Amino acid sequence: MESIRLAVNGRTDIGQVREENEDSIRWFAAPDHPFAYIVVADGMGGYSGGATASNIAADTLKKYLDGLLEHTFLSCSPDQQQLMLRAVLLDAINIANREILSAKGAHAQLSQMGTTLVVAVIWHDYLIVAHLGDSRAYLWNNYGMQRLTRDHSVVQEMIDSGQLTSEQAQESSVRNHITRALGVSEQVEPDINSWKLTENALLLLCSDGLTEYLDDHAIERVLATHRPALECVYRFIDDANRFGGRDNISAGILEFASQVETLTTDSESSITLRPQREDVTVRKEQR
């Protein structure tokens, strides 16, 4: 019989400089089913705008994910459930985008708002991650750490083309320019990828208020050594604030424990949705 335990924790913090927290985070683990998720959204658009956009995104994803575990879903085959989960994520992301655009049209003071989004869901041993922007998802297990998302940003494109190193990107004047976000255009193309989890693992979702200060090696050290694992969220917030805390900081940890042991990519059920248009460049507030 399958034996999977999921536990989740999250935290968001205003940081040391900002006057408002424009990040939003939601997390949940079902008590009766092996189902859990984390949603992190990093808003932009000035006072009240960023917070409004990120809350719309986070609340919309939460609403649709909370409604997933009903009779139709539970009675489906595992393959059908994976397809339904992907469809629910896409629908929720598109609905959140429309709601942000609608709020922008109705309130002039919100006209510049938008938000990044990263969401991860585990159902049994199936992990699915969707994202837009530079909020990230990482997975750590006994073999090390893997970054599950690639930033939709100008500096990431420059790194990919060889114009910048990762170290130079940290100091770049365009490091806060993102190329995909919610609330910017009527069409959104999140990247969606999925994996089969076959050994114990930790999943981290975070906003760039954390990754501005902690590189992948520093993040991996914390995930590998800090216990209890769910309390890593407090350590990450404290570290980012200690190093300057120029931005809001959000971190969510999802702990996957199974009796089975090895992380393999589920190539048959994995898909990345590629953009069919040129990405829009959005400039987030200077950190």
Automatic annotation (TrEMBL):
Residues 275-287 have a biased composition (Basic and acidic residues). Residues 1-256 form the PPM-type phosphatase domain. Residues 267-287 are annotated as: Disordered. The lineage of its organism: Bacteria, Pseudomonadati, Pseudomonadota, Gammaproteobacteria, Cellvibrionales. Signal peptide: none annotated. InterPro entries: PP2C, PPM-type-like_dom_sf, PPM-type_phosphatase-like_dom. It comes from the Bacteria. CDD domains: PP2Cc. This is Stp1/IreP family PP2C-type Ser/Thr phosphatase.
